[in-house]
Amino acid sequence: MKYHLASCLLLIFLLPLSAVLCAEAAAAENGRLLCAITEVIECDPHSGCSELGAEDVGLPDFLVIDLEAKKILEATSVSLRESGFNTNSSVEGMTILSGVDGLRGWSAVLSANNTRLTASVSDELAGFVVFGSCRADAK
Question: Which of 8, 26, 36, 120 has its CA 20 to 30 A from that of 114?
């Protein structure tokens, strides 16, 4: 189940880059962000919650969030997985994204300066919370 939901998380973000690379990320209202996933927490009603790394659930270490194209992509030279999002709104300086991928719903919040990411994805069996760090993508 972890790997099945993790594939969805990848398509969704879900997300983020190490804190060292994120020190001065610029706001990217219509740009691209390179994000590194720093932590994943999986919760289900039977076994509770457990802290995992990105690779533990089949996520890449890096994702690109393209705010203009409204897509989240695997940050590789040939991105094979991507997910679109329907909502891209700004509330008190934070960017809020949400969408549906298959039978899963997801949402993500980028901090006011787009350096921090918190995202969640859930279906009827379990949920994940993903944390990450981002910076403006130079591409």
Answer: 8
Q: What is the CATH number of the domain that holds 105?
A: 2.40.160
Q: What is the pTM of this model?
A: 0.74
Per-residue burial over 101-130, b = 16 or more CB atoms within 10 Å of its CB, e = otherwise: beebebbbebbeebbbbbbbbbbeebbbbb
**Cα separation of 42 and 65, whole Å?**
22
Q: What's the total number of domains in the chain?
A: 1
Sequential pLDDT tens for the chain (139 residues): 554 444 444 334 433 323 323 333 344 456 899 999 999 999 989 999 999 988 887 778 899 999 999 999 888 766 677 888 977 788 888 999 998 878 888 899 999 888 999 999 898 888 999 999 999 987 6
Q: Which one-letter amino acid corresponds to residue 117?
A: L
* End-to-end Cα distance, the chain: 34
Q: Say if residues 22 and 134 touch (Cβ distance below 8 Å).
A: yes
What are the beta bridge partners of residue 36? 62, 133
